[in-house]
Q: What sequence folds into this?
């Protein structure tokens, strides 16, 4: 009987790990890429598409689902898995990031964060306890604590005070959910901005609270690749060896490979689905901007090395036509392919770590996408 939270490392290649994370809705092979299903759907694709593309786990946003359709409504329908017909693992964020990035008026205090809905301007309040109760209503397999993601350029003094409050909030989240209750896991989130010593401070404080996994927050917030990698390389290897490590909101193919090399196991990013909708497609030979005139009469597949539904059935000429005609099918086929590309990248990383060839895999993609793939 799998024990939710059990994390077994099968192989290592440098700091990179090949592991299995057990959850109440099945095992996750890591390194893993998690498609983002913000409002209970991964935009433009269905659960069958996701399964066929090899998705093991998807992400839901607490902030959005709380505001619409409401976490209580979802709970009355049997929880998010049943509601969206996805019976594999789901990770929900705590809404913290959306509140800070989407909501206009907000007040942050020791008690929590007050904000106005981006939908109708109504006033709402997330305490750490409320953020957890929403995720319990959603029934996600992995819950995230409520934290404050300080923006890029926040001063050191504010960053230091903020991480202390984020730790106190993390403790309050832990206090309202017994480890493993209802098979749900809870991850702590490391803050500390771009200061190595504050990152270590945040991690050290969180280690005193039992979490089933730890996430690196506060990155991919507009910083340079150099700053992201500096913090990633510093804190990744310092995170608990025997627990899953999750880098939130990252990233480009090269950012993901850099994260894996620093010992990170789990990634989520809207890049594949968001870029699909503006015609930017990731392929084994680099980025393809499908709206370019050069593809008007190109009968070849988008990516000859890709096994996805889009690449097996449609030509670049057709994909370009759909995109320029703003056909809805364009969003589905482009999103499917980009998701398949990111899932395949993670699969190749798992295989490379098993074979001790991760450095070669990273070098291969560096040759195609450059050092940071932006
Ligand atoms: C669980 C909610 N908390 C939380 N989410 C995040 C989501 C992110 N997404 C990105 N780039 C796209 N950076 C992030 C940082 C955080 C972060 O520091 N905290
Ligand atoms: Zn494809």
A:
């Amino acid at each position: 009987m799998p024990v939710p939270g059990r994390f077994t490392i099968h192989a290592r290649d440098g700091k990179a790990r090949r592991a299995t994370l057990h959850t109440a809705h099945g095992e996750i092979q890591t390194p893993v890429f998690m498609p983002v299903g913000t409002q209970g759907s991964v935009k433009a694709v269905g659960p069958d598409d996701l399964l066929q593309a090899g998705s093991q786990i998807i992400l839901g946003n607490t902030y959005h689902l709380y505001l619409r359709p409401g976490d209580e409504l979802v709970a009355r329908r049997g929880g998010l898995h049943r509601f969206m017909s996805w019976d594999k693992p789901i990770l929900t964020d705590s809404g913290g990031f959306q509140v800070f990035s989407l909501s206009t008026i907000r007040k942050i205090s020791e008690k929590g964060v007050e904000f106005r809905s981006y939908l109708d301007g109504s006033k709402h309040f997330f305490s750490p306890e409320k953020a957890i109760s929403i995720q319990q209503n959603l029934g996600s397999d992995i819950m995230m604590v409520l934290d404050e993601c300080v923006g890029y350029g926040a001063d050191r003094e504010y960053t230091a005070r903020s991480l202390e409050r984020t730790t106190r909030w993390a403790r309050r989240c832990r206090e309202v959910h017994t480890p493993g209750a209802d098979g749900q896991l809870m991850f702590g989130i490391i803050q500390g901005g771009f200061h190595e010593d504050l990152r270590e401070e945040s991690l050290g404080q969180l280690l005193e609270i039992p979490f089933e996994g730890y996430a690196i927050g506060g990155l991919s917030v507009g910083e340079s690749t150099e700053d992201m990698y500096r913090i990633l390389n510093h804190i990744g290897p310092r995170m608990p060896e025997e627990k899953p490590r999750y880098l939130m909101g990252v990233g480009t193919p090269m950012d993901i490979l850099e994260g894996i090399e620093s010992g990170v196991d789990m990634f989520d990013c809207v890049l594949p689905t968001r870029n699909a909708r503006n015609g930017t497609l990731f392929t084994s030979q680099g980025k393809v901007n499908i709206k370019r005139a050069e593809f008007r009469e190109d009968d070849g597949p988008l990516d000859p090395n890709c096994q996805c539904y889009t690449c097996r059935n449609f030509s670049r000429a057709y994909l370009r036509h759909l995109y320029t005609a703003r056909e809805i099918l364009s969003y589905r086929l482009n999103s499917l392919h980009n998701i398949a590309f990111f899932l395949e990248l993670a699969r190749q990383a798992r295989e490379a770590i098993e074979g001790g060839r991760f450095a070669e895999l990273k070098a291969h993609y560096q040759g195609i996408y450059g050092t940071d793939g932006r």
